[in-house]
Every structure is written in structure tokens, then in C-alpha cells.
Specification:
This protein is an alpha+beta fold. The chain is 40% helix and 19% strand. The chain binds one RNA strand through helix 3, helix 4 and strand 7.
RNA sequence: GGAGAGGUACCGAAGUGGUCGUAACGGGCCCGACUCGAAAUCGGGUUGUCGGUUAGUAGCCGGCACGUGGGUUCGAAUCCCACCCUCUCCGCCA
């Protein structure tokens, strides 16, 4: 959410930046009218309330001196009623304004390239050599099914399309990757590990921006104000909702493994096979709270932390800056890391690292108190996948396959495959 | 599910109809004094939000907020109703 006053004073800028994202029906046009209406009502209401307060104090004074206050009381009779009426009118207008404001996306950073969709994303880096095969590389689902470590048919029996059943060394590999990523980020990169609830309420979903606009992407628990989390970003960012942090605590860095649940509404026919697009997938997420002036640099180091996972796994990847049209609703800037998928002969997203500026912090009331200041300020929030585990597993199967249908594992995972008992 | 207790500022906590929301008191934090420096001590400061004013995220003026939403009243942290959450005990349970 952007600040009301900011929108009012920079309406042209907000309109331009929103257009740059390719969003048409943002209702910004209504803002000016509704905002004015609200302030006029508010002014009138505040006058009435001020009057009530003043007169009530006079009545109190009279009563204290044992004098008759009946005349004043009579005069004020009905004042409460009038105030209530105005309050109700105002509430309606504010709801209207809130709808408009909640529908306005975050402003994109100046360094974000203009563009329409993912084709306009700008590559900023390439790492590793794309493997050359002397044979036709198989898809990860073929390899996985042949090895008996992936079973999509039975998963469909259990739950339907877009679910996977991992078996034997497949589930062992998934678990190893989770542990490897958590160990790297906690032991080397200084993140604190958290394991949050996998269901959150609507307030939490609203703070990070999934609600109210993107409800159709979520799974809701029937009869409860609870949703399955689409990413650990939601519970972890909400850890400090309505809190004021001390400046010396910043940046706060969390690392969290959770499964993620997404309806994938609107992606029918896309990636129907394999592990790429599932209703449930594992992810290790990195979340940061930083001072506003540090968030740019924190995004770069967050990206580096995520990249290191791929480097250690020796998986080739590239980094792209999302263009304005592909940028998420709440983000000011996003880097996607895309891993090489040999069977598809292209790079596929495996991590998304974003700076949200104060957009989420304002919605969620996350602030900090600067050392020498009386006033608290909103923090900046950032997060990034470090990494999407299912897609990492798929990349390992495809990149490290041999012509006999077996695969080999990157060295860093060996400790996770040692026999323990 | 049953019984009870409680939700007030950064934290703890007082306050049961009228300058108590510039919210007692304690702690923390920040600034200053003392000190070679620190500790201790002493002094000062420290809620958020919306609106107005303004060159201003500074000041000043005003409104609102004591879990949430309603109600009573000239006036509600305080009285009434509903709901949410936390804690304790009992029951059930992985």
C-alpha cells in the first residue's frame, strides 16, 4: 500500500508508474474525487467532535462546582447522533477509498526496465556452462519415473493433477536439498531459521499483498479464516507485524523451509507435466527487514545468497531483472534466477528475489526506531527463494543425467547421503 | 468442550462515568552532566495515525485510537451486549 498523502501529492507519478506495469483498471481516476470527499467529511466531523468535547468539558466543570448544567446538556442532546451519522457516511467513503488504494501496485524502482511481459526481462548475468550431451537429454519426469523416485500417476490418484509423489532416493534428495539450503543460509549467510505455521489468517495475507487482489490464487480452509500459505514470505514477513524494531537489530534475516500451496488459477495447460508447476511444492525462503537506505544493497546480497546455492550445486543459471510488466504487485524491483533445464533447452525460474520497499511494512505496520530519532519509520522488507526445492530437484535430474538413465549428485550433497545407522 | 483470569504506550503495569491518551509508577532505549574511559548516579527526552497549516518527512493546531464491533450518555479505558485473542485448571487428544 502506498501512503495516502503520497498518492495525493504525486498522482501523476503514481498513474505513470502504474501504467508502466501495464495495469489498466486501477481506478486511480477515482482517487482524487473520493479522497476529496473523504477530507471534506472528515473536516466537518472533526469540527463536530471538537465542539462536543469542549462542551462536555464545560459541563464537567459546572458539575464540579455544583452548578446547573441542564441547559448545556439539553443543547448537546442529539449531537452524538449527528456525529454517528457522519461517521457512517465517512466509513462508506473510506471503504471506497481503501479499495482504490489497495488496488494500486507498488512503484517500480527506476532501475526496472520498461516492458510488457517476461520476454522483456533483461539478463544481467550468466553463470556456469550449459551441459553438452552426447545423447538426447531426457526430461526430469522421465528420468524420475524410470528410476522409480517420482510417481505422478499415483499422486494423481491421491490428489489429482499437479501433485507429485516422491519415493526412496527421490524423497531423500528433496529432504537433502532442504537441509543443504537451510544449513548454507544459517551457517554461512547469517540467517536465523524459523519454521512458521503453514496456514495464516486473512490479516497476514493482506499485509504481504496476496489479499485482497489475488484471493483466487490461494487455497482457503473451508469454515475458517485460514489460507494455506503460497510462500513462506507470508508468515515470516508477518512475524513482526505491528511491531517496532530497534535499529541495532536491523537487518533482521530469516530463513525458512515450508511447503507452498498455489491454486495456479489461470495457468491451465502450462507445464502440465513434471515438477515445475505444482499445487504443493517445497521452498526455502529468505526474508529480510532492513533500514530503508539499505534495502537496495540488501537485495543484491540476498540475490548473491540465493545464487550461491546453485553455484555450490554446480547448476548453470542466469539472472534477469524483471521488467515493469512482469513485476509483482507489491515489489519495487525483482531479480529472477533461472536455472538451465536441458530437456526444455531453456532457463526456468528457480528463485525470485524482491525488494518491497515500505509497501508491505505499511500494510503490516512494521517499523523501527532510528537511534537518534523520536519518530519511528517503516522498515523495508525483502524476500527471495533460496531456492524452490522441487525445481532444484528437477534441474539436478536433468543436468546431471547419464546416458544409462542414472544421475550423479553434486559433491556438496554427499554428506546428506551418508549412511547414519 | 467446561471453569476462571486477562488484553492500556517499546516492555511490565496503575487507572471502575468528567483535564487519565502530552496515560501514574517501574524497566528499556536515546540525549546530556559527572569520568581519562566505563559502571553507578543525576537531569532531560521517548505512542501511533489521520486532517489542517507549511517549502517541509520540522514546528504548531485539531480529530481518532485503552483487543474488535455495537449500545447507553452531554461525556466511556471505565457501564451494557456480541465477538476475537492470550494465559491457568479440568476433559479429550498426536
Amino acid at each position: 500500500m502506498l501512503e495516502l498523502r503520497f498518492i495525493r501529492e504525486n498522482l501523476e507519478l503514481v498513474r505513470k508508474k502504474t501504467e508502466r506495469r501495464g495495469i489498466e483498471d486501477s481506478r486511480i481516476e477515482d482517487f482524487e474525487k473520493v479522497d476529496l470527499e473523504r477530507r471534506e467529511l472528515l473536516g466537518e466531523l472533526e469540527r463536530l467532535r471538537n465542539n462536543r468535547k469542549t462542551v462536555s468539558a464545560e459541563i464537567a466543570e459546572l458539575k464540579k462546582q455544583k452548578q446547573d448544567a441542564e441547559a448545556l446538556i439539553l443543547e448537546m442532546r442529539g449531537a452524538g447522533e449527528r456525529i454517528k451519522e457522519l461517521e457512517n457516511t465517512l466509513a462508506g467513503v473510506e471503504e471506497n477509498l481503501q479499495d482504490i488504494v489497495m488496488g494500486i501496485p507498488n512503484l517500480c524502482d527506476d532501475s526496472v526496465p520498461a516492458g510488457k511481459d517476461e520476454d522483456d526481462n533483461v539478463e544481467v548475468k550468466k553463470w556456469g556452462d550449459v551441459p553438452q550431451f552426447a545423447f538426447e537429454p531426457k526430461s526430469h519426469w522421465e528420468i524420475g519415473e524410470n528410476l522409480g523416485i517420482l510417481d505422478f500417476e499415483r499422486a494423481a490418484k491421491l490428489s489429482g493433477a499437479r501433485f507429485a509423489l516422491l519415493k526412496g532416493l527421490g524423497s531423500r534428495l528433496e529432504r537433502s536439498l532442504i537441509n543443504f539450503m537451510l544449513d548454507l543460509h544459517t551457517q554461512k549467510h547469517g540467517y536465523e531459521e524459523v519454521l512458521p505455521p503453514f496456514m495464516v489468517n486473512s490479516t497476514s495475507m493482506t499485509a504481504t499483498g496476496q489479499l485482497p487482489k489475488f484471493e483466487e490464487d490461494l487455497f482457503r480452509i473451508k469454515g475458517w479464516d485460514l489460507y494455506l500459505i503460497p510462500t513462506a514470505e507470508v508468515p515470516v514477513t508477518n512475524i513482526h507485524r505491528d511491531e517496532t524494531l530497534a535499529e541495532k537489530e536491523l537487518p533482521v534475516k530469516y530463513c525458512s523451509y515450508t511447503p507452498c500451496f498455489r491454486s495456479e488459477a489461470g495457468s491451465y495447460g502450462k507445464d502440465t507435466r513434471g515438477l515445475i508447476r505444482q499445487h504443493q511444492f517445497d521452498k526455502v525462503e529468505l526474508v529480510k527487514f532492513s533500514r530503508p537506505e539499505d534495502s537496495g544493497a540488501e537485495l543484491e546480497s540476498l540475490l548473491a545468497d540465493a545464487e550461491e546455492v546453485l553455484q555450490l550445486l554446480k547448476l548453470p543459471y542466469r539472472v534477469v531483472t524483471l521488467c515493469s510488466g512482469d513485476l509483482g504487485f507489491s515489489a519495487t524491483k525483482t531479480y529472477d534466477i533461472e536455472v538451465w533445464m536441458p530437456a526444455q533447452n531453456k532457463y526456468r525460474e528457480i528463485s525470485s528475489c524482491s525488494n518491497f520497499g515500505d509497501f508491505q511494512a505499511r500494510r503490516g505496520g512494521v517499523r523501527y526506531r532510528p537511534r537518534d530519532s523520536k519518530k519511528s519509520r517503516l522498515v523495508h522488507t525483502l524476500n527471495g527463494s533460496g531456492l524452490a526445492v522441487g525445481r532444484t530437484l528437477a534441474a539436478i535430474l536433468e543436468n546431471f543425467q547419464r546416458d544409462d538413465g542414472t544421475i550423479y549428485l553434486p559433491e556438496v550433497l554427499e554428506p546428506y547421503f551418508e549412511k547414519r545407522f
